[in-house]
Batch of 2 targets.
Target 1
Amino acid sequence: MVKRPILALIHILESFTEWTGKLISWLTLFMVLVVVAVLLLRNVFGFSAIPLQESVTYMHAIVFMLGAAYTLKHHDHVRVDVFYHRFSHRTKALVDMAGFLILLLPVCVFLIIYSLDYVIFNWKIKEGSSQPGGLPYLYMLKTLLLALPITLVIQGTAQFLHNMAYLLGWKALPHGTDEDTEAVPQVTGDQEMKHG
C-alpha cells in the first residue's frame, strides 16, 4: 500500500530536479551571450552597461546554486572514491542513505537556519546594487542562499527514498546506477503476443 505513493514521490522529486537542471543549463548559454555583449559594448562602443555586467553575476549564481541538486542527482560532484566503487549495490545504497542523514541533511538545515534571517532582512529593505544604475534586485539574488539547501534536500530525499525502495525490493537497482532507467524492461503488446 505504501509502495505506490513512495515510488510516485520519488518520480515527482527527481523530475523536479531534472526539469530545473535542464532549464538552468540554458542559462549558461545566455550568460555567455551576455558576456560577449558586455565586451562588445565596452571595447567597441565605449559603453559600460552596469546592469548587463551585474546580470552575469546573477546568472552565474543561479547556475551554481540551483544547479547543485541536478549535479547531485547525476553524481557529478567531486568526491573521494577510494572504497565506494568496490561496494556492492546494497552497501552503496546504505552508505548513500547514511550520507544523506549524517552529512547532507544537517548541513542543509544549518544553511537554512543560518541564512533565513539574513534573507528576510534583505527582502524587508529591498537591497539593491551598490553601483549607480545597477540592478535593484540583490535581495532576490540572496534568496538563493535558501534555494540551494532546499533543492539539495529535495534531491537528497529522492535519493534516500530511491535507495530505501531498492533495499525493500521495490526498485531493481539503487540510485546512481547507470542502468537506473533501464532496470525494469517495459513489455510491449507485440512482446506479449510472442510470449503468449
Target 2
Amino acid sequence: MAKKRAITVQDSVINIVRHREEDFLSLTDMVRNLPNSHIIIGNWLRRKDTIEFLGLWEQLYNADFKLIDFEEFKIEAGTNRFTLSPQQWIGKTNAQGLLSKSGRYGGTFAHKDIAFEFAAWINPGFKLYLIKEFQRLKEVEGRERHAEWDLRRALAATNYRIHTDAVKDKLIPWAEVPQKNDVFIYAEEADLINLALFGLTAKQWKEQHPEEAARRLTIRDSADTFQLIVLSNLESLNAILIHKDFSKKERYEMMREAAITQLTSLRKTSALQKL
C-alpha cells in the first residue's frame, strides 16, 4: 500500500490509500465513532444486497474473481446463520475491491465505488459529505500534480539549450556530416548522461519498462526531483567538458562521479526533501 492520505467527514478522520493505481477508503474509520463499531462492517457484509453488489463489482473489474465461491456466498447471504469477514471474502473469492490490513494503522479498506455504497448504507447524508470531501481532496491533488509537472518540466529544460549548443558547436562537423545524422549525435550525448545518472541508455530503459514505453514515457519521465536537478547539472557539466575537448570516456567518468556525489548530497538536504 502507498502512503496514506486522509479526509475529515463529520468529525471522522478517514484514511485513504492508493492500491493498484486506485483510491481505497477506510471503512474502519467510517464507523470508528459509531456504537458497536466492531460489528458494523460484518453486519453489512452479511446482507444479500451487499454480496450481490460486491460480486457485480468484481465481475466488472477483476478477471481473477472466483465466481463459484461467490455463488456459494450469495446463496447463504441474508440468512440468520450467515456471517462473513472481509478476510474471508477476499481469501475465498480473490476479491480486489476490499483490502484488509492488520496492525496499528490497519483495518478494512474499500475501493471508492464500494466505500461510497457502504457510506450510503450507514447514512445517506454521510455519503454526500464523504463524496464532497473526497472530490475536494482530488481537486487539491490535481493542482499539486500540475504544479509538480511544471516544476519537473522547468528542471528538465534548465540547461538543455546549453548542452545542445555545445554538441552542435563542438561535436557536429557541419561541413562533413549529413544533417539527417545530427540526431544520432545528440542522442549519443543524451545517452551518455543517461548512463552517468541512471546507469541505463534510453533503449535499455524501454526494454526493461515495456508498459511505460507503450505509454510513450521515457527514462527521464521516470526521474524523481533529485535526479532532474542532477540531470540539469550534468548537462551543464558535459557542455563545459565538450568545449574543453575531453574524450567521451573521460566525460562519462567525471559525470558519473558527479552524479553519485550530487545525488547523495541532495537526498540529505532537508529543504529539498520538503520540495
